[in-house]
Amino acid sequence: MAEYDVIVIGAGPGGYVCAIRAAQLGLKTAVVEGRDTLGGTCLNIGCIPSKALLNATHQLHEVHENFEKMGLMGASPTVDWLRMLAYKQDVVNGNTKGIEFLFKKNKITWLKGWGSIPAPGQVKVADEVHAAKNIIIATGSEPSSLPGVTVDEVNVVTSTGALALPAIPQTMTVIGAGVIGLELGSVYARLGTKVTVIEYLDAITPGMDAEVQKTFQRILTKQGLKFILGAAVQGVDGTTTRYKLRKDDSEVSLTSDVVLVATGRRPYTAGLGLEALGVEMGPRGTIKTDAHYATNIKGLYAIGDAVAGPMLAHKAEDEGMAVAEIVAGKHGHVNYNVIPGVIYTTPEVASVGATEEQLKEQGRAYKAGKFPFMGNARAKAVFQAEGFVKILADAATDRILGAHIIGPGAGDLIHEVCVAMEFGASAQDLALTCHAHPTYSEAVREAALACGDGAIHA
Length: 458
Ligand code: NAI
Prior knowledge:
Blueprint: E1 3-9, H1 13-24, E2 29-33, H2 40-45, H3 47-65, H4 81-105, E3 109-112, E4 115-116, E5 122-125, E6 128-137, E7 141-143, E8 156-157, H5 159-162, E9 171-175, H6 179-190, E10 194-199, H7 210-222, E11 226-229, E12 231-237, E13 240-245, E14 251-255, E15 258-261, E16 265-267, H8 274-277, E17 300-302, H9 313-327, E18 341-343, E19 348-353, H10 356-362, E20 366-372, H11 377-381, E21 388-394, E22 400-407, H12 410-422, H13 427-431, H14 441-450
C-alpha cells in the first residue's frame, strides 16, 4: 500500500491547486483523477473552452459591427464551425497539458481512475488502496437536473453539449439567465442563432446589482438575445420547452433546434462512499465542513463546488491553497467577503462585495459613486462605452464595501478593487491613486472620486 501525506480526489482548479501547494510545502502528494486529462470541468468542459468560443465569436461580432466604422472594408469572414471547435480544443489541450507539466515539476503522483474512500485514511482507485494522512475531496459539481427534462447532450444539452454541438443551430432556447446561459447564449447569438432565454425570476443574473442587471439585459437584447422573464419551465418534450408565465399562470411553449439547460449545478460526490463512511452532509448535496474545511471524519477535508459557497473556480483554488496550508500546519484562510464574480460576455460584467440591495437590507448607510464608460476615452475608442463602474462605500468611514462593473475589461478591472478591499481601503485611497491615461481603469478611479467630491469626466 503506497502511503501519502495528502491524497486529493479531483484535479479541477480546487484539487490541482491544492496538490501543487501541498507539494510545495514538502508533503508527499497524489491526485486521483478519472478523466483522461487534468483540469476538471473548468479546463475541459467549462471556463476555458467557453472563453475560447467567446473570444472567437467576439472577433466575429467586431467584424460585423465595428470594422466598417474603423475603415476596415471587405468581405466578412465565414464561420468554419469545425475549425472553431478545433481551436477551442487546442486551447483546452494546451491548458490540461500545462497542469500535467506542473504535476511532474512538483513531483505529484497522478493516480488515474475514479477514487472512493473505503475507510478513513484510505483511498481506493481501481483495485488498489492507497493510504493518506489527509484526504481532500475536490470533486466539483455537475449540472443539476430539471424535472421533466431529459438531457441527451445533442438536442437538449447542458453546457457540456453546448460546447461541442455538431453544427450551429438556427434557433436555441436557453433555460436560465444565469452565467452559463448568458455566456453560451452570447456565443450562439453572435454566430447567428436566434437565442431565446427563459428565466424564472423577473431579472437576469440573480443576485447581481439591480442596475447592472438592467443595463446588461438591455445590451444583450441589442445584441439579439430575446428574454422571457418570470417564466417557470415545466418540461421539455423533444425540443419543445413548456413554460408557465408566473404573472397569470398561462402555459406557453417554444420549439427550437437546441435547448440549453442552464439552471445551476450541484455538488458531485457520487461513488465516493460518503454515506457508508458517515460523512455529515449540508444543504443541497454539499459536504459539511468546519471553518478549516474539515469534515466530521478525522483527516478528511472537502473544498470547492462540493462544499458551501459560490461555485467558482477561483473560490475553489483559494480553498485548495488554504486547506493545503492547514494540513501542513500553517494558517490557510479565505476571505469570503472579497471573492469576485465575472461574466465573460461583451461587455464583461464583474462584481465584488455587497450590492446596493444587500446594503439596504442590512440597513447600512452607504454612498454610491458611479461613473459611465461614456466618459472614458479608451472605452469610446473601442465602441464599448455603454456600461459603468459603481463603487459602494461606507457613508461614515468611506471604506469600500463593494464594486459592480459592466464594461470593457470589467473582469480585470475588478481586481484593483479586490486588492483595495483586502487592505481595508477607502474610496478615497483608490481616488488618490494615479491611474494611467488612457485606460479603462480610469473609470474605476472616477467612480471612487464620485464617492467623494465628484468625478472629473462626468
Ligand atoms: P445559475 O445559478 O447562475 O443560474 C441559473 C438560472 O436558472 C437562475 O437565474 C434561475 O432562476 C434559473 N432557473 C432555475 N430553474 C428554472 C426554471 N424551471 N425555469 C426557468 N428558469 C429557471 O446557474 P448556471 O448559469 O447554470 O451556472 C452554474 C454555476 O456555474 C453557477 O454557480 C455559476 O456561478 C458557475 N459558472 C460560473 C462562470 C463564471 O464565473 N464566469 C461560468 C459558468 C458557470
